[in-house]
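Project outcomes to date are best conveyed with an example. Our students and postdoctoral researchers have been running inverse folding experiments weekly, and each run begins with a structure described purely in C-alpha cells. The record below, which covers 503 residues, was selected by the lab manager from last quarter's runs and is presented without edits.
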C-alpha cells in the first residue's frame, strides 16, 4: 500500500530524530521532504522554513508549499519516511537524472530536482500546484479550509471538533443529494432509453436499477471530492478514500451490468425479427461474456486500489491457467467448437439434424454442449467439439422432401400397359397439390433378375415430417389403386428351378 506523509510525532518516533537535530540542509530528497512536512505541523508550524523547499525567489512560496501539503493530505497519500533516498547524489533509475518522484503513479506531477547541490521541488511542480489544488478542492471548496477549523480545535479521538461537524455536514449533504438525484436522474434515463419507438416490455425494473446505481455512483464521487476539506489524518484519509473508491467501483460494476441487461433486451428483440433462431440462442452467451468482462475489470481495478501487484498476480494465474488448460483440453476443445458453431451456423434452433447414428431436433446450443431432442422425446447432450468435427446433415433447411421408390413389375406385364401405367403415374405427381411440377421422374430404368423396375421420384413441398409422411401415404395408396385398376402385378424376389431328367 502506498503511504502518505506522517505527522511530525510519527516521524520522530519512527526515525528516532530529536527536535534539536533537524536536518534542513536540503542536501538529500529525504531532508527536503522532511523539512517541508515538519514545519507545517501544528506543533512546529513555521511556513517560512517549509517554503525554503521551493526554489528562490518566489514571493508565493509559503502559500504554494501550504497548498502542496493540503494536496497530499487531501489525496490521503502516505509514505514510509525511511524509504526516502538519503543519498545526495541520487539518480532516477529510468532517466538517470537527479530527480525523485514520491508518487510516480498517483501524483507524477510532484517531484524533486537537484539544483546547485540542493534538492527542491521542481519548477514544474511549483507551476502545477495551483491547478492540482483546484482539482483536489473543486468549486471553491478550499475556502472551507479556512472557515471550518475556526469552529473548534478541541480534539476527541484524534479528530478536532470541526472535523466531526464536517462529517455530520457531509452525511446530511449526501442524504439531500440522494433525494435530489433520485428524482432527477431516473426521468432523464427513462427519456433517453425510450427515445426509440416501441420500448422493450418489462424494462422498467432495469431502468429503476440503472437510475439507483447512477445516483449512488455520483453520490460517492461527490463525497470523495468533498472529503479533502475535512483534512483527516493521513492514515485515516488513506483508508477512507480507498474505501470510497472501492464502493464507487462496486456501484460502477452494478451500473454497467444493468446497462448490459438492457442492451441484451434490445438485441434479443432484434434477433426475434430474424429467421435465424440461433441469434436468440447467442444472446445469453453474449450476456455472460459481457458480465464476465465487467466483473473481471472491476476486480482488477479494486486490486489496483489495494496496491496489489496485478501483473504478478496475472502471471501466476497464467501459469496455473496453462496447467489447467492442459488438464482440461476437452473443455477448451468444446469451447472452440461452440465458437465455430456460432460463426459457421451449420444449423439453428429447431432444425432437424442427423450425424452418425443419432438424429433429432436442436433445442439449445450452449458453451460446452448442444442439446438435441431425439425422436423418442429424450434429450441428448453432444459436446460441441464432437459436432464441429463430424459431418452433420441439416434436414431443417431442406427446400423440399424427396419421395423416391422403385416399382417392381412382373415380366408378364405387356409393354403397352407399362407405358400407359407410367403415364398415369406422372399424372399422380402433376395432380397432387404438394409436389413440385418440375424435376420429377417416372421412368423405366432397369430389367432386373426378377422384375421390370420403374423409378418414381417426386419432390414434396412440405415443411414438417408429419405432412411428409401423410403425402407419401397418399402416393402409395394411389399407386396401389392405379395398379389394381390397370391389372398390373408387382413382382417379388423369386427363382425358378428346372429339373432335368438324367435318362
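After processing, the design step wrote out the following sequence:
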Amino acid at each position: 500500500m502506498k503511504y502518505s506523509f506522517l505527522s511530525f510525532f510519527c516521524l520522530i518516533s519512527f526515525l528516532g530524530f530529536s527536535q534539536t537535530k533537524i536536518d534542513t540542509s536540503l542536501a538529500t530528497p529525504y531532508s527536503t521532504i522532511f523539512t517541508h512536512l515538519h514545519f507545517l505541523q501544528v506543533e512546529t508550524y513555521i511556513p517560512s522554513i517549509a517554503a525554503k523547499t521551493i526554489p528562490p525567489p518566489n514571493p508565493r512560496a509559503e502559500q504554494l508549499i501550504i497548498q502542496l501539503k493540503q494536496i497530499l493530505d487531501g489525496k490521503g497519500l502516505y509514505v514510509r519516511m525511511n524509504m526516502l533516498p538519503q543519498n545526495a547524489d541520487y539518480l532516477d533509475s529510468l532517466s538517470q537524472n537527479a530527480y525523485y518522484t514520491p508518487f510516480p503513479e498517483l501524483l507524477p506531477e510532484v517531484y524533486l530536482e537537484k539544483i546547485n547541490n540542493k534538492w527542491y521541488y521542481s519548477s514544474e511542480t511549483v507551476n502545477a500546484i495551483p491547478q492540482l489544488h483546484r482539482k483536489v478542492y473543486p468549486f471553491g471548496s478550499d475556502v472551507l479550509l479556512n472557515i471550518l477549523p475556526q469552529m473548534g480545535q478541541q480534539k476527541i479521538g484524534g479528530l478536532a471538533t470541526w472535523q466531526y461537524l464536517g462529517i455530520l455536514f457531509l452525511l446530511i449533504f449526501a442524504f439531500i443529494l440522494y433525494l435530489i438525484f433520485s428524482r432527477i436522474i431516473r426521468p432523464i434515463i427513462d427519456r433517453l432509453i425510450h427515445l426509440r419507438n416501441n420500448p422493450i416490455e418489462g424494462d422498467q425494473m432495469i431502468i429503476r436499477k440503472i437510475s439507483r446505481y447512477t445516483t449512488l455512483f455520483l453520490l460517492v464521487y461527490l463525497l470523495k471530492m468533498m472529503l479533502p476539506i475535512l483534512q483527516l489524518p493521513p492514515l485515516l484519509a488513506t483508508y477512507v478514500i480507498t474505501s470510497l473508491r472501492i464502493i464507487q467501483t462496486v456501484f460502477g460494476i452494478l451500473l454497467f451490468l444493468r446497462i448490459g441487461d438492457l442492451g441484451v433486451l434490445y438485441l434479443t428483440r432484434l434477433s426475434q425479427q430474424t429467421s435465424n433462431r440461433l441469434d436468440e440462442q447467442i444472446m445469453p452467451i453474449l450476456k455472460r461474456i459481457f458480465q464476465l468482462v465487467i466483473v473481471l475489470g472491476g476486480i482488477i481495478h479494486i486490486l489496483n486500489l489495494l496496491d496489489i501487484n496485478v501483473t504478478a498476480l496475472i502471471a501466476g494465474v497464467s501459469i496455473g491457467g496453462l496447467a489447467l488448460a492442459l488438464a482440461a483440453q476437452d473443455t477448451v476443445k468444446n469451447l472452440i467448437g461452440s465458437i465455430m458453431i456460432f460463426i459457421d451456423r451449420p444449423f439453428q434452433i429447431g432444425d432437424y439434424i442427423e450425424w452418425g447414428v443419432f438424429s433429432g431436433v436442436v433445442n439449445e446450443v450452449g458453451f460446452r454442449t448442444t442439446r438435441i431432442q431425439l425422436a423418442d422425446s429424450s434429450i441428448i447432450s453432444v459436446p460441441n467439439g464432437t459436432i464441429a468435427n463430424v459431418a452433420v446433415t441439416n434436414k431443417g433447411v431442406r427446400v423440399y422432401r424427396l419421395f423416391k421408390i422403385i416399382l417392381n413389375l412382373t415380366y408378364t406385364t405387356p409393354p403397352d400397359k407399362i407405358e400407359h401405367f407410367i403415364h398415369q403415374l406422372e399424372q399422380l405427381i402433376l395432380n397432387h397439390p404438394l409436389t413440385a411440377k418440375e424435376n420429377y421422374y417416372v421412368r423405366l430404368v432397369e430389367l432386373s433378375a426378377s422384375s421390370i423396375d420403374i423409378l418414381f421420384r417426386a419432390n414434396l413441398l412440405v415443411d414438417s415430417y408429419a405432412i411428409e409422411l401423410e403425402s407419401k401415404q397418399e402416393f402409395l395408396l394411389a399407386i396401389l389403386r392405379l395398379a389394381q385398376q390397370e391389372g398390373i402385378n408387382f413382382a417379388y424376389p423369386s427363382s425358378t428351378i428346372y429339373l432335368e431328367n438324367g435318362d
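Residues 8-136 form one domain. Residues 234-271 form the longest helix (38 residues). The training component of this project remains on track.
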